[in-house]
Design brief:
- The structure is a single chain.
- By secondary structure, this protein is α/β, with parallel strands linked by helices.
- The chain has a 6-stranded parallel beta sheet with strand order 2-3-6-7-9-11. A 5-stranded mixed beta sheet has the order 13-17-16-15-14, with helices on one face. Strands 1-12 form a two-stranded parallel sheet.
- Helix 9 links the parallel strand 6 and strand 7.
- Helix 5 runs parallel beside helix 6, helix 8 runs antiparallel to helix 15 and helix 16 crosses helix 17.
- The termini are far apart.
- The N terminus is likely disordered.
- One of its GO terms (biological process) is peptidoglycan turnover.
- GO terms for molecular function: hydrolase activity, hydrolyzing O-glycosyl compounds.
- This is Beta-N-acetylhexosaminidase.
- Keywords: Glycosidase, Hydrolase, Signal.
Amino acid sequence: MTSSTQKWFRRLGAVVSGLCTVAVVASACGTAPDNGGTLPMQDPADVSAKVAGIIKKMSDADLAGQVLMPFAYGRSATDVSAGTAAGNKAIAGVDTPAQMIEKYRLGGMILIGFGGNDPTAANQPVNNVQSPEQVRALTGGLQAAAARLPADVPLLIGMDQEFGVVTRLTTGMTVLPSAMTFGAAADPRLTEVAWRAAGLELAAVGVNVNFAPVADVLGPAGSTVIGSRSYGSDPRAAGDQVVAAVNGMRAGGVAATLKHFPGHGHTSADSHTELPVVKQSRQLLDTDDLATFKAGIKAGAPIIMSGHLDVQSVDPGVAATFSKKVLTDLLRKELGFQGVVVTDGMNMAPAMKVPPGEAAVKALLAGNDLILMPPHVGQAHQGIVDAVKAGTLPRSRLVEAVGRILHLKLGFGQAAAPALSTVGTHQQDVAPLAAAAVTVLRGACGKALVAGPVRVTASAGRDKARNRLTEALKTSGATVVETGGSVVHLVGYGDTAEDLAAGAAVTVHMDVPTLLAKSTSKVLVATYSSSDLSMDGLAAVLTGKAKPTGRSPIEVAGLPRTTCA
């Protein structure tokens, strides 16, 4: 090992020591999640020595595998159908996810599942998330495969469990509302409690990395691909929410990820299909987009995801994914981030302009440590190995990346999983947050918003929310009818003015509430989410059982942030 590499490990050990001092990396520093067990306190110097010892024994192929986090086809690590095997052969030349891990010495794997309203569906080619029991069995099989590798370190198993429109696992889980709901409730204490619950349940199914929270500050035009995935338009308030989410997930035993650096909230384009241009001046980038990332870094966020974004004020014309100016000069040197940098999906359009092997090398050279969802695992792995051999990718850069990944693994990756029976049991931890977010943007405050018989209607595809609200209204004492009555109309993600109901007494938006500006209803309400708990909170407000305490975290044309002082 070179003297420069040894110095790097000592610096990283000092960073981990500082994090332990302020209780930032809970599981890495000895504070276990609430799962009935404890992790032994680890001396950062011992961790660094262990990491150095592991790396010393690694070949170039081992190192290359550790920086890859692909997807795989199949809901089981080892038992796959012919069609599933064909999918894995196409991207990795193997039949099963377990074989993929073993062949390429993988450091991680991402699990995927998506629904009809998912704005990220464009680059989600598989759906291997079905239920808590199935995911727990899958992750157990993946970890068993990783345990057979010479490095004998845990696998990083990631998931985009943002909640709201991007929720990979819904069945059997306690479902949190969207990020914008948290922003409307504006109570970081409730946010931390809710995200701790989510962290515990993710850890229980074997997921140790969550690609959340979204730290993007929503601009005036409002990025449609980000939308309610953002906590809002106020950088300081959004930063408080980001910190609470990071702390909550850490307490639950899961590594949080800030995304999409350096900020996707002021763009109109969708990075899944094209390269968005971030036109913010450097000054506005610092005070607006970067504010939430600075807050998250200060709180000890262990992972940051780079965005496929053309940041004009830093490195015009170059996707941040491939920009050393963005990821090394800005993120590492200027902002001081010492954790793991992971790319956004490398099967997204901006990254697909470069062959998988070349793209992986370019991303590492820019400053990424973990390559997410390469479109072809074999080509990405071989590209890294070949580049090290040719000298175009310094081995020291690869060692640096693997060192950061292993430090993360020796923390979050080794925490004992909570019992599977804890999954789906944390509604009481989330309900106060969902209720506190309900916002009245037009109408009286402090009394029932509906009187007499009530009829609930909804735009197409929202039967689940309509049914939940109907039952919740009945529980709150309202008379709900199938014909006549005062109409409460629900709209949500992707709806337009054509989806509004002209005669509705109350119109409720269950996503970014800008459409409410076009409604003629006498009462306008925002829940920012269609989750069951959001519908329960809405019913309590409509019937006067609870005061609407939420405040819109974004501007809605012609409407106040709330009619309640």
